């Protein structure tokens, strides 16, 4: 009996009891935490730690969907158990975060009549608004963008972008909006064509685009909401220039992006001059605001407000081989000009050759207004060139461009959301130095020493 009492009073038993109690408490805490976590919505139980934040809802969607006044239903015609986890997680967020949006999954194998009812195929999302009796169909495959550049050499197409938010929010906007706009883009003058990225953003904002050969028409069509001149390389005729000018004076909207050309363009230059802009000679450089020391790769100073400033946070817009204009007196007192993009005042130059560079502040983007008409000018076609917009994911070129387009319309919002990169990034420590060595070696050594000291004390007890 005495021996039993000694055993019960021994330090080893006390430490053993203490360790057991701590283990039991830890297990209980883990069980409770898991039980609580299991009650949370699947929409928020995934913490997005990726650089591209593919599960994060942008402010564009939040602002639009928080103010939504119509009920919208997302019918996902797919087997939920086999659907892509990224798409499944993202779609569930719409159900969890926005009170006017609800989600229903329908297995088309178990319920084949749903395909006929909604006029859709399997693995699609039917976005429907009963109030407007409109619906849009989004394929799940369109939410994952693939890069086929290496397909013919490797036989493998890599996932490049995640576009679930852009597709879904755009579809919701389309079925709830009563407004659609028609954009005509001119042809016949060597104009550039919209990249896939820009075409996608136009579609997401519910814009319909159509070609217009101004040499074959006497006037701008009545259903034109915006006339687009995208980097023409040959000049307009005098009649074409007059047609565009009269269209603006009559309340029409025109968007002109200057193109690089060796041809003389006196009529297009005259159109600029009419609205208070004198085309500068040569290319524009900026020695103060440039990319890695190259003065022809310009980060313009932005002066944006109201609709032009929507979702502009970094103000990082890159223009390459830009042309430029300076402000002059417009032909009519009814015209006002406002610059929203320019070089720095001290670092801007118009360069014709190595020996001829004229210093000054040059306008790279401006809006001229005459009564109800609006004339927007951007002086570099690189603003929306795929080589820039698709290569630098952190730039705001496309955001500012779409803001400039929607700025022409009081009843249109910029709902175009860029796809997010799925490029893999690695959490590696570069140039670790002393700080890196502390985490790699110092902390583990400290923990080992602390553990050894505690063990030694218990050993002597």
**What would you report as the Rg, rounded to the nearest angstrom?**
30 Å
Question: Low-confidence segments, ≥5 residues, pLDDT <50?
Answer: 40-47, 425-432
Count of separate DSSP helical elements: 13
CATH-wise, what's the superfamily of the largest domain? Class I glutamine amidotransferase (GATase) domain
In what range is the share of β-strand residues? 15-25%
Name of the top-level CATH class of the largest domain: Alpha Beta
Q: What does this protein look like?
A:
It contains 13 helices and 23 strands. The chain has 461 residues and is α+β, with helices and mostly antiparallel strands. It has 3 domains: 39 residues; 107 residues, 3-Layer(aba) Sandwich (Glutaredoxin), CATH 3.40.30; 232 residues, Rossmann fold, CATH 3.40.50.880. The strands form 6 sheets. It has an 8-stranded mixed beta sheet. A 4-stranded mixed beta sheet has the order 2-1-3-4. A 3-stranded antiparallel beta sheet has the order 5-6-23, with no helix packed on it. Helix 8 links the parallel strand 7 and strand 8. Helix 9 packs parallel to helix 10.
SSE topology:
Blueprint (H helix, E strand, L loop, with lengths): L1 H8 L1 H27 L21 H8 L5 E6 L7 H13 L3 E6 L6 H6 L5 E6 L4 E6 L4 E4 L3 H4 L3 E5 L1 H13 L4 E7 L8 H9 L2 E7 L12 E5 L7 H12 L3 E5 L8 H9 L2 E3 L3 E4 L3 E2 L2 E5 L2 E2 L16 E2 L4 E3 L7 E8 L5 E6 L2 E4 L3 E8 L2 E6 L7 H4 L7 H10 L13 E2 L11 H28 L1
Parallel strand pairs: 1-2, 7-8, 7-9, 9-10, 10-22
Antiparallel strand pairs: 1-3, 3-4, 5-6, 6-23, 11-17, 12-19, 13-14, 14-16, 15-18, 18-21, 19-20, 21-22
Helix pairs in contact: 9-10
